[in-house]
Write a structure and sequence with these properties.
Length: 258
């Protein structure tokens, strides 16, 4: 496999750009081909089989680009379809992302609020993650589809978004959480608004973007395909919306501090 081949990064929409940022920070000399399936987002409320089909179709459609690795930068698609993508591509490293529950526990959190999509929260993969935590670790799980729509740019009305978060989090705000897991790759883009809605300036956020980037680095190293030419890195954005706006929104999110 060619070391200069791209790393394919896939998400249901723009959320995986939060993972792409971590990948670029860790491995700036790689070329990343980012595909967001915004035309079909959100994946979160869809039945599992539909998420599997959309994921296989999206990844399968990009194989002609000759990727050297595939990153499923979507918790929902990982939970539903990671094994199927791996089975489709036995010769390529395929890395997914799952809510950072064990990372939050390892950092000492005992009461964790996990925000994710309905699809992730209903998955067998999430049930296994919960089952692997210590019995004394408590997790309250909340689906937050409105954050996905906001990051997708479906509504840019910030006041309305803040009111949505306030309504969503009011019932759990007094829960005494010592950590919040951002279990959807769209959510790191709403960290500031989430901190304000939780009314806990010091709350710790956890997401698995950094760990996923590390896993990709290890996979490229063990397959001997890491780029060796300094300064050769870059990003190509593709989006199923096929519009100038979609690409402009992608570049804007890539430049957003998270
Ligand atoms: N970004 C995706 C995730 O990490 C899901 C967003 C959606 O519902 O499409 O779960």
């Amino acid at each position: 496999m060619d070391r200069s081949a791209p790393v394919l990064v896939f998400d249901s929409g723009y959320g995986g750009i939060s993972v792409l940022k971590r990948l670029i920070a860790l491995m700036p000399d790689e070329h990343y081909l980012y595909y967001g399936d915004s035309a079909n987002a959100p994946y979160g409320p869809r039945p599992e089989e539909e998420i599997v089909d959309l994921t296989l179709r999206a990844v399968g459609g990009l194989l002609s680009e000759g990727p050297k690795a595939v990153v499923i930068a979507c918790n929902t698609a990982t939970a539903a379809a990671l094994d199927r993508v791996k089975a489709l591509l036995p010769e390529l490293p395929v890395v997914g992302i799952r809510p950072a529950l064990s990372q939050a526990e390892a950092a000492g959190c005992r009461r964790i609020l996990c925000l994710a999509t309905a699809g992730t929260l209903a998955s067998a993969s999430y049930a296994r993650q919960l089952g692997a935590l210590r019995p004394e670790t408590e997790v309250v799980s909340v689906a937050a589809p409105g954050i996905v729509s906001y990051v997708e740019g479906e509504s840019r009305d910030r006041a309305r978004f803040e009111a949505y978060l306030d309504g969503l989090l009011r019932p759990v705000r007094s829960g005494g959480f010592d950590g919040v897991v951002l279990g959807c790759t769209h959510f790191p883009f709403a960290k500031g608004e989430l901190r304000a809605a939780l009314r806990q300036e010091e709350i710790r956020f956890f997401d698995a973007g950094g760990d996923t980037a590390e896993a990709v680095r290890r996979a490229l190293e063990s397959s001997g395909t890491r780029s060796e030419s300094a300064g050769s890195g870059g990003v190509t954005f593709l989006n199923s919306l096929v519009s100038r706006e979609a690409l402009a929104h992608s570049w804007a999110l890539l430049g957003t501090e998270i």
